Amino acid sequence: MSAVAVNGKSGMKRKREESSKGILSTAAPPAKKRMVVTPWRDIAEFSAVYDWLFSKQTTPANRRKALSQMRIWSLRRGSLCPASVLATGVLVQAQLEDKQGNPNIQTTYASAFTRFFNFMSSIMQGFNMTSMYDTAKQLGLQSFIVDLRHLCAHGQELPPAEVLRHTSEHCIEWLRHYYWLPQNETMTNLDAPKLQRKDKAAFEKELRTLMEIYDLALECQLMGAEKLKAVSKLKSSTEFNKIRVYCSAKKIKTTTEILDKVISDLNSAIKRQNSSMKDLLDIYTASVLKMKYFLGAGLKHTENEEVVIQATQNLFRLFAVQGYIENIFVAFVQLAENPNADDESRQGASYWATKMLQTFGMLRKMKRMYTEELDKNPNTKTVDFTTLNKSEISKLMRTLLIHSGCDLTLTLVFGECPKKPRSWVFEREFLMNRVDPLTPHSVPIFNSLLPLVEPPLTAEQRNDLTKLCDIKIQHINQEKTKNPKNLPMDDQTDDKNTLEGTTFGIWTLEKDNNWTTCALGVLPTNLSEIA
After folding, report:
1. What does the pLDDT read at residue 523?
2. In terms of C-beta density within 10 A (0-12 exposed, 13-18 middle, 19 or more buried), how is residue 312 classed?
3. Which residues contact 218 (CB under 8 A, 6 or more apart)?
4. DSSP string of 467-527?
5. Does pTM surpass 0.85?
């Protein structure tokens, strides 16, 4: 759980008061407010352990509860658990064993003191201390603690149990003033919903800018405007200025160079982000779907489709390298099924999802051919399908591509992610989940999914699903015919029936009336629907 630790003037004030009373000055130096990830769930959990350890009314049972909770914290954060918590734990453990009458208590205390000092000195490792005495001085520990640590670790005879017992109490009190009390007084819970993620906002802005430049450059290249002079004639002054500024910053001059550079910048932007950013993938996917020209490029250039594939090849290879190819595919499918999206975006999403499925099928076939070849000849060279994300591929990989039966000029060629290899098949559940939201835009996706389902569908099952798909689309088209959108009621005429003057019980249908203004609603004009 995240918490904000604040060490302010109160720590310095307490330090002066304790010094005037003869108490050793051990308060931690003031620190700026910062956000840290802690092993405790919230302040209440931390405060409970503090009370169990240091309350005047505490009992051995409560201290054992505190010890158990600190062990849980250690498991939660491992090596990132605060050193002061770990140091407290080893001393409390020794004290509890002392209370229980451990016959080897001197050895137990000796081990505890050695670990205590090692934990605390690890805090100062970045300060390049020359000796343990310097480390102790920086921490605010007296030099006799170092002497005692040396005796416990290297002495021929261990210090008396009574000395160890009193020193452990001193160190526990030191830890209370050095760590536990400042944290307990200044730490606050983090209100995560209200936290403004500046890194997230900056990442969104960066991706939005890069995707916009990519979309503009792609349009210019597909329209034949390769150089900036041609781009200036094709685009508005505002759009051209965005491209000009980007080219000036990156020292490039053509749309081909722009596309390549944007791909490189996108890759760098993802690498810079912390993998723990919860919304990273959502932001990335949303930015891709906002590229309007990219979405519709395949439909606008049907006569030169190979040019579109060639221009966008590196973008899909980037998705594959980053491990997002499957997520982008699902996003295209969902957009094609979304009834609230505009038709142009849905058609474009359907186009790219279908193209990706063709590639999935090609990769699946290539893997099958390679496996068969490997069975015949165990000495066959190893094939790395991640190399398909590069412009240069091996001779064997090129042979597999050629024998896959796909037109490489019209097929997206990308490979696996090095970190997330997969078999490029889909579960039946994924296919069946596409039936209910099926639309005319998602039909090509549905049909292309059929041969990629695992376990494979029988010919009869594929036949049945195809018929189900046809029936659903037919039903959708009939509904559209019966209830055309944005069509005035005056234009909805029935050539087979004369509606004027027709009587239905107490109702009379008048052809010239504007039924859309009637409080009772609109009466259907198709008489066959009225029972």
Report:
1. 47
2. buried
3. 255, 259, 291, 293, 294, 297, 311, 312
4. HHHHHHHHHHHHHHHHS-TT--GGG---TT---TTEEETTEEE-TTS-GGG-TT----S-G
5. no
